Amino acid sequence: MKIATLLSAGSLVAVGAAGAVGVMRLANAQPAATELVGQPADGSTYVPASYARRSAANYTVDGVHSGVVFRIIHAGAAPFYGMFTGLSGDMTIDPSDPSATRINVEIDTTKVATGNDNRDDHLRSADFFNARQFPTATFSASGGEAAGNGSMEIEGELTMLGVTKSVTATMTPTGEGQFRNSTRAGFETTLTFKRSDFGMTAYIDQGTLGDEIQLIVFIEGIEQ
Q1: How many domains does the chain have?
Q2: Cα(143)–Cα(152) distance, integer angstroms
Q3: CA 136 to CA 147: how far, in whole Å?
Q4: For residues 24-48, average pLDDT
Q5: Quick one: pLDDT band at residue 126, thresholds 50, 70, 90?
Q6: Domain around 188
Q7: Can you say whether the dihedral through the CA atoms of 200, 118, 137, 219 is positive or negative?
Q8: For residue 36, is it within any domain?
Q9: Which helix (H) or strand (E) holds 47?
Q10: Do the beta carbons of residue 141 and residue 156 sit within 8 Å?
Q11: Which DSSP string do the residues of the chain spell out, in sequence order?
């Protein structure tokens, strides 16, 4: 739901070719064309045929199969990707009436993962997420507007480091299925914001790390 501020540390180094490629593939993955319905000519939005819901449903977030990928530019040169696990929350999604959408999601900022323990510790420090004082970041939204092909535009509030700002996110359904005797629905939300708006300014002036953060929030919801 476009949801929390994430970035890498000042001593940023590559996670490793295999890990970086894996995260990039995760962030850019799209369903096979044969599984899609209503695909636009430019391929910008995908709605899989497995997501056929037309009525409201309440979900709790499956923290084991949900998370947040973040992207930031390092040294003004290349994108760097990391991840947060430990997502929790609940949602009400109504494809027939986006204005009835309700989202409350919490991110555990202590569970940042970039493939380097020293960098992860730095990200938890007061230079960045200050996870000891602010162990969670939250995103909440009430209402949305249809954005075409089953996706919706959501106006919400992102709270991080004790600061709350309005953000706009795009949420797209990714599928629906059965797992462990429960109905699951998947959603991917993207949002972009400036970390400096939340008081996180480390290494911006030096040009080591960018100010703009892109979040890709992937959620598997368990229907209640």
Answers
A1: 1
A2: 10
A3: 29
A4: 43
A5: very high
A6: 17-223
A7: positive
A8: yes
A9: strand 47-48
A10: yes
A11: ---------TT-----HHHHHHHHHHHH----GGGEES--TT----EETT----S-EEEEE-GGG-EEEEEEEETTTEEEEEEE--EEEEEEE-TT-GGG-EEEEEEETT-EE-S-HHHHHHHHSTTTT-TTT--EEEEEEEEEEEEETTEEEEEEEEEETTEEEEEEEEEEEEEEEEETTEEEEEEEEEEEEEGGGGT--TTTTTTSB-SEEEEEEEEEEEE-
Which CATH number does the domain housing residue 161 bear?
2.40.128.110
Looking at the domain assignment, is residue 1 inside a domain? no
Greatest mean pLDDT range, 41-45, 54-58, 74-78: 74-78
pTM, full prediction:
0.76
- Out of 26-30, 47-51, 130-134, 208-212, which region has the weakest mean confidence (pLDDT)? 26-30
pLDDT value, residue 29: 46
Contact call for residues 172 and 151 (beta carbons, < 8 A): yes
C-alpha 27/C-alpha 127 separation (Å) is 26
Would you say residue 24 lies in a domain?
yes
Is the pLDDT assigned to residue 33 strictly greater than 90?
A: no
Average pLDDT, whole number, for the chain? 82
Residue 147 domain flag: yes
Question: pLDDT at position 55, please?
Answer: 80
Q: Is 200 helix (H, G, I), strand (E, B) or coil?
A: coil
